[in-house]
Amino acid sequence: MRVLKAIYGACMLLCAAACTDAEQFVAGQAGQQMSLEASSQSFLPQPGTRTQVGDMAGDGALSILWSVGDSIGVFGIPDANVPFVNTAGEAGMSATFTGPTVSSPGYAYYPYSAAATSRTAIPVTIPSEQVYDGVQSIARNDIKAAEVVRSGDTFTLNFHQMAALVRFEFDLTGVSTLAADELLQDVTIHQTETSVPMAGEFTYDLTNLEAGLTPGDYQMDGITLTFADPQPVSQKVVAYAVVAPGQHAGNEWSCVFATDKHIVTFTTTALCDFEAGKYYTVPLTFQVLQNNEATYEEIPEVDPDEETANCYIVTEPGTYSFKATVIGNGEKGIIKGVGFHTEDPYIDPQSAKVLWSDRKDFVTDVQLRNGRVYYTIPEAIASSFDGTIQGNAVIAVYSEPNCQGDILWSWHIWGTKGEPQDETYTNQAGATFQVMDRDLGVSEVGRTDDVMLYQWGRKDPFPCQDIQVRSFYLDGTTLEKMSNLKGYNYRMTTDVATIADAVKNPMYLIGGTKATVWPWLAEPNLYLWGDANRVLPETLTDIATAGAGWNQQKTIYDPSPVGYRVANIFTFSGFTDMPSGSTGDVEDADNGFNIALQRLDYINFVEDNTDEPSNEWAFMRYPGDTQGSIYPALNPIDGFDGKEESNVSAGYWWSAEAYIDATDNRARACYLETDDYKTSAGSSNKTGNVIDTYARTGLLRLACPVRCVRE
């Protein structure tokens, strides 16, 4: 098997000498199957589905073991990407791989992937956030390939490692700033001037292994290694991370490591390049920290009264954190006895990562430590937008280390150009509401390309399909613009969806298998956004009914930031002086037939830009308002097919209210609907379905914008 060896020295990033003898496999045909065999020293069995790290020699050399059930991919002529499985009874350096007969096998690679459709572009991913729970962690990202050399009936596979290793060596004896009982949490190395990929998506060509890894669309120029079992700084600690080979010599690097009490930062210069099959030592010692003028920042005490929510606003670059052991707004967000997926707001996450973002590298360096998620908004994000922050991302926490197991919860990180402001609305009943000046997800008032859409009752945001400027990054994979997605692979199709399914799948729209199935939730729950079973009044001028707040409290599923919640339907009633937004049938003498007329004087607006490309209204927030509040039209996305509702030209904003319609026993929700005016021939009047202050819909699988109101 391949062995990684290193020699040590005093430089910060030490070039290590390699190497190893080639791995050899003997292949022989038997009936309808072909076997690839290897013989070498055996080790103790440790079952798994990826290779394992075996013994470590005194000089640091590591042996890699094949695990029971490991699969390699084999390319032959003309056979493409045939899996061969290790059928040995125990893990070891001796293994037998069995699979179907392959004509003229030419190449092999590990680990097997069904996505490898071309021998010249084998896809691999090196995660930028890795969890270290011992040397076995290396095997999770073991990447290697071989060219098959045939000699008679014998096939020899000379495997080559395609990745490199970084070996962190902590010896903090003598660092007086750190207490002996402080625990190492994580370490990050990151380039500060250049951008040489160290993690992300890559491909490689089996026919030209010397060319190494070719970067794909999603790249990161640094890595973060989190300790699954934090160690005291009084002990010497060695940990490994898998990285992509690359040219780093002379590049300036930032190194950051965190304990439970301090964040230590310094910069240094890389002294060598990273080569595949080698590892490079990063010594973290008192002398290194002193020579590089390291800074020590105390981690502030956590406010015991800290408010929590499902969305956190960021307005400038920096490192942020939030409580990861409490879902939504905690205990006060649970309505007991109404069928929530849990009545316990506390979770015990084991790992965290960025699930998706609508801007590359908007959120980086995600770490879970001491029950909190820490993340960074890089300076580069701000420099792209005149020092402001614009972007959206979702961070998820998992039930197991290394982002395995179930997603326990997820949070929306919302980057805005300045802090969103409140606007005072006065509705028809004279009640006032403090309403956010933009939709959730929008970085600047009036924009639509970064608005987030929500299926009713869910906390999870989805990018709109109008994104034309940037790509969408799903779980580290660059996708096409959402409007061009093939296969709508961000959808989850099921007729039996539960609330728990929605929690575990925050990246997926949910829809049934039939267009006639309206809600995403198999058994509708009216309480998800805390305004169930409202009886709508006959008139919107009654302060006792149309001026009221919500029927229940803000819930754990509300997508709003701290201090806000999804709008009450009466929030918008001041936009029209008609109770329902409709005037009924009116005779149009010019055309000689009855049409539904909604005249401009029935709509309380400052500007009507619905004839313009922006297709937006500026509604009067209160009588006499001369500025207005912008409501740009944006078609929703249907969770059934993942497509934009292109047959409408309206804007829709969810309210928190839901109910069961007695006429058909279906769940419905209320929303604000706007549309554009169209000028009738021979008339100065404009017609159209313009404003409906509490329209009702059964399509609870739609994803629509949300406007938040102060609690």
Question: Secondary structure elements and their pairing?
Answer:
Layout: E1 3-4, E2 26-30, E3 33-38, E4 52-56, E5 62-65, E6 71-75, E7 82-86, E8 95-100, E9 107-110, E10 122-126, E11 129-132, E12 144-151, E13 154-161, E14 164-171, E15 184-191, E16 199-204, E17 214-220, E18 222-227, E19 237-243, E20 252-259, E21 262-269, E22 279-285, H1 286-291, E23 295-298, E24 311-314, E25 318-323, E26 351-357, E27 364-369, E28 372-377, H2 379-383, E29 391-400, E30 404-415, E31 422-426, E32 432-436, E33 452-455, E34 462-463, E35 472-474, E36 477-479, E37 491-493, H3 499-504, E38 509-511, E39 531-532, H4 543-546, E40 564-566, E41 585-588, E42 593-596, E43 605-608, E44 616-619, E45 629-632, E46 637-638, E47 651-661, E48 666-674, E49 678-679, E50 686-687, E51 691-697, E52 702-704, E53 708-710
Parallel strand pairs: 11-18, 14-22, 24-30, 37-38, 39-47
Antiparallel strand pairs: 1-5, 2-3, 3-8, 4-5, 6-7, 6-9, 7-8, 9-12, 10-16, 12-13, 14-19, 15-18, 15-20, 16-17, 20-21, 21-23, 25-28, 26-29, 26-35, 27-28, 29-30, 31-32, 33-34, 33-52, 35-36, 40-53, 41-42, 43-44, 44-45, 46-52, 47-48, 48-51, 49-50
Gyration radius from CA atoms, angstroms: 30 Å
Helix content: under 10%
- Estimated structural class: mainly beta
Poorly predicted regions are 1-50, 481-488, 581-598, 679-690
Compute the average pLDDT: 79
| Strand order across the largest sheet | 2-3-8-7-6-9-12-13
List how many beta strands DSSP finds. 53
Written description of the protein model:
The chain has 711 residues and is mainly beta. It folds into four domains: 3-162, no CATH class; 165-298, Immunoglobulin-like (Sandwich); 311-422 and 442-484, no CATH class; 531-710, no CATH class. Helices cover 3% and strands 39% of the residues. It has four helices and 53 strands. The strands form 15 sheets. The protein has an eight-stranded antiparallel beta sheet with strand order 2-3-8-7-6-9-12-13, with no helix packed on it. It has a six-stranded mixed beta sheet with strand order 11-18-15-20-21-23, with no helix packed on it. A six-stranded mixed beta sheet has the order 24-30-29-26-35-36, with no helix packed on it. Mean pLDDT is 79; it is low at 1-50, 481-488, 581-598 and 679-690.
